[in-house]
Each structure stands twice: as structure tokens, then as C-alpha cells.
Amino acid sequence: MRHILLSCIILLLALAFCLFSMLHVRDICRKTLDLLSSAQTAAERNDFETCRASMQDAALHWKQYERYFGLALRHEEVDDVISRFAALNQYAVLADRDDFLAGCAELMSAVRHLREMELPTVENIL
Asked: For residue 57, what are the contacts with CB-CB under 8 A and spacing of at least 6?
């Protein structure tokens, strides 16, 4: 009986971590998307000072959770987001509006994809 109880407790702990991870990753991605959206809006107004600040806030927010992402997400996709942040930073420094907007859209799409992958859907389970 103790073995069954111990097994159930371990299973519940694993499920609790999965639920926490799903909610936490989705929240981190939402905050990152909000910051990137404000950077995109600033770039559309040609306000690259505000744009750089918002983009750097998004990058710092993302970087703060990199180790956690190593546990919770696939490494290739996290590396892709990191490299997209580096490219976006260069576009912001150069104040290249068109490239920044295109790079920002790609980065936001990659972050949205990571956020959607955390949902318990049939596609994600299989």
C-alpha cells in the first residue's frame, strides 16, 4: 500500500510541475510579447529610442528565464529566439525600420509558437 501511495504522490508532483511550467512559460511569453509589441509600435512611429528600450526590456525579461527554459522547452527553439533577439537588437541600433519590423514580426511569431506549444492540445501531446 505504501508503494502505491508513494507512486501516486510522485505522479501528482510531476503533474503539478507540468501545470506550473505550462502556466509560467505562457506568462513569460505573454510579457515578452507585450514588450515586443510596444517596441514594434515605437518603430512604426520612428521612435527608435523608445523602441530600443522596449526591445532591450523584452530581451532582458527573456534572458532572465533562460535556465528555466532549458528545463521546460526544446533547446533549438529557445536558441532560435535568442538569435532573433540579437538580430533585432542590431536593427534597432541601426534604426533600420523595415528590417526591425520584419525581424520583430518573426520574433513575435516564434515566441507565440512557444506559448502555443505549452497548451495541452492533441497536436502537442502527440
From this structure: 35
Question: Distance between CA atoms of 14 and 70, rounded to whole angstroms?
Answer: 17
CB atoms within 10 A of CB 118: 19
The tens digit of pLDDT for each residue in 16-75 reads 988 898 899 999 999 999 999 999 999 999 998 999 999 999 999 999 998 888 888 888
| Residue 64 in grid coordinates | 532572465
* Interacting residues of 85 by C-beta distance below 8 A, sequence separation 6+: 55, 58, 59, 62, 107
User: Residues 21-35: pLDDT tens digits?
Assistant: 889 999 999 999 999
| Orientation angle between helical segments 75-94 and 48-64, nearest 10 degrees | 160
